[in-house]
Design goal:
- The chain has 276 residues and is mostly beta strands.
- It folds into two domains: 21-33 and 143-260, Beta Barrel (Thrombin, subunit H); 41-141, Thrombin, subunit H (Beta Barrel).
- Helices cover 5% and strands 30% of the residues.
- It has two helices and 13 strands; from the N terminus they run βββββββββαββββα.
- The chain has helices spanning 187-196, 263-267, and strands at 31-32, 41-48, 53-64, 67-70, 85-89, 101-109, 126-130, 156-161, 178-185, 208-211, 226-231, 234-243, 254-258.
- The chain has a six-stranded antiparallel beta barrel with strand order 8-9-10-13-12-11. Strands 2-3-4-7-6-5 form a six-stranded antiparallel beta barrel.
- It is globular, with a radius of gyration of 17 Å.
- 48% of the residues are buried.
């Protein structure tokens, strides 16, 4: 199931060398997450016959006690049913003794997502309905942005996950959740950076958002996870980890699904949640 591990289009042909820099303690350039810092983060699992366990494949976020937001490319091939997945909520470390996994009973991929194009084709977003509510002690939903929210360039936001520390440098045991601050990059500038590396690079669409810098980025295994910003004293999820070129390369920020573009679609399935 290697496609589930990809942060889609890794290295995009590698026309720019991807030599890793010094190892840093984070998803790329971050640090371990303190308890209760990002209580909406979840791990999306797929059963590994080789490992004989529910293996982490992607990240995700609670947007309601019974609903998870993630990337559509994390759920390929589309023939896979909901029973093929589990969700871990509330744990900072993967595979901890006694961890509780929630069953997924429904997968809703955005209808405009095209699996033949992958994440770079846009609409890389999906919802998972869980069998039962995640108790508040195991997870707290993150706030969604207003559909009209515009994130200014250079605003500092945060991305979290259990992904690689760098290209082909997996997170070692005890698999502790990591966080890193990333600056938002305007879509025009981001599009130019990717196009300058080759004539065949995909365009940065309006439903995408870029963030990250050299040695500060998401990586393989972080796909589907949340990009959150502090907005009016509230943490708001503005992006879903989608694709990018390797991990933490200079001039190649990570590309995220812009959540604000899909709030009406999300709300057509996920009821409002105002807390306990």
């Amino acid at each position: 199931m290697l496609w589930l591990l990809l942060l889609i289009l890794p290295c995009l042909g590698a026309s720019v060398p991807g030599t890793p820099g010094p190892e840093r303690p984070g998803i790329v350039g971050g640090c371990p997450v303190a308890a209760r810092s990002f209580p909406w983060q979840v791990s999306l699992r797929f059963y590994s016959m080789r490992q004989h366990r529910w293996q982490h494949q992607c990240g995700g976020s609670l947007v309601h006690p019974r609903w998870v937001l993630t990337a559509a490319h994390c759920l390929e091939p589309q023939e896979l049913g909901a029973c093929a997945f589990r969700v871990q909520a509330g744990g900072l470390r993967l595979y901890a003794p006694g961890e509780e996994l929630s069953r997924v009973v429904q997968i809703i991929r955005h209808p405009e997502y095209n699996s033949s194009l992958g994440a770079a084709g846009g609409a890389d977003i999906a919802l998972l309905r869980l069998e039962a509510d995640v108790p508040r002690g195991r997870g707290v939903p993150v706030s969604l942005p207003a559909a009209a929210l515009s994130i200014p360039a250079r605003k500092i936001c945060w991305v979290t996950g259990w992904g690689d520390l760098g290209y082909h440098r997996p997170l070692p045991p005890p698999y502790h959740l990591r966080e890193v601050a990333v600056p938002v990059v305007g879509n025009g500038e981001c599009d130019q950076r990717y196009r300058n590396s080759s004539r065949h690079r995909p365009a940065i669409r309006d439903d995408m958002l870029c963030a990250g810098d050299k040695d500060q980025n998401s990586c393989q295994g972080d796909s589907g996870g949340p990009l959150v910003c502090r907005w009016n004293c509230t943490w708001v999820q503005v992006g879903v980890v989608s694709w990018g070129r390797c991990c933490g390369l200079q001039n190649f920020p990570g590309v995220y699904t812009r959540v604000a573009s899909y709030v009406p679609w999300i709300r057509s399935y996920v009821p409002w949640f105002s807390g306990p």
